[in-house]
Specification:
about 400 residues; alpha/beta; 18 strands; about 35% helix; globular; Sacchrp_dh_NADP-bd; Saccharopine dehydrogenase
Length: about 400
Amino acid sequence: MGKALIIGAGGVASVVVHKCVQNSDVFEEICIASRTVSKCDALKEKLDGGKTKIHTAQVDADNTEEVIELIKAFGPDVVINVALPYQDLTIMDACLATGVHYVDTANYEPPETAKFEYKWQWAYKEKFEKAGLTALLGSGFDPGVTGVFTAHAQKHEFDEIHYIDIVDANAGDHGYHFATNFNPEINIREITANGRYWKEGEWIETAPLEKKEVYNLPEIGPKDIYLLYHEELESLAKNIKGLKQIRFWMTFSEKYLTHLKVLENVGMTSIEPIEFEGQMIQPIHFLKAVLPDPASLGPRTKGKTNIGCIIRGLKDGKEKTYYVYNVCDHEECYNEVGSQAISYTTGVPAMIGAMLVMNGEWRKPGVWNVEDFNPDPFMDALNKWGLPWQESHNPELLDLDLDAKELSR
């Protein structure tokens, strides 16, 4: 059907490449591009020889002109951005300059501050509309599948959605004292930022990891979950009409949080530059360099993830609850594509989003989040490409009023 340029060569990109090659009827040619072309060449060597023709290229994704030249040389129908979130805008600019559709998995954030907002990318809406191009934002799992799950619930399960709790649980064990399951810099910036949730039209801020609950998740059991801010809250609060509250929760072990607190206390998680041996560095960049590469965790990680949406609202005038989720096994992911489940659950939806843009099912000019489109083809594709979803109409519920619960303790 067409050609895709995949920018990035980390763990998520590896999954995207594997899945594009599996889906060769849609992805007839791909080009893997990264600052470190040897990583791209290694993926090509591993997967070359099938129906999908694979190319590689070196590119600095911070440099729009370099991206433009690469797009012109390869001529893709879509660019799949699985590089760093800092590079979203330069790649979007390159797509506009060359007339190519755009897909990413995480919203733009400026390098100098941990600020997770869609405003910078939503500002491109008119430019993409005028160019007749589609920019699909956040086609990973969270954001991504969680938005599609919500759109599915809105279309098929509810007349009105009032409350959403997104729960991201990783019960995997990689055996290290401390490691992050995706890019350490992005992961730690996200966790150490203030929490936020949306309620009755307002954002309520909490201290980092201040709010904790215990939730019993299917197939992995009771886990400590902590309230974080996550970017899909912003888009879903805007796009789901009638919503009263939306929150995001993630699991962390006590061991993980203890190590993180020590690193934070000694300044290793800081993004403020310091002078070291005559040059300015961000401590978090040094920490990233000494931590295990998330792409190397695959052969060590055992256990499962469970990510889903607990939704409450009305159907036919009656209150209704609904839980839609995916359980993913780390070892099964590694056996299939050589990665752990965190990369797998992000890379598979990135391929699906790009496929739907390429085949026209999710194509309309402008800048869009996944919940803006018909969820049905995406939900079908999840079952086909390795992320089957499950549902419950009588789930365990989380307390809706955090403040009242806190005061009662």
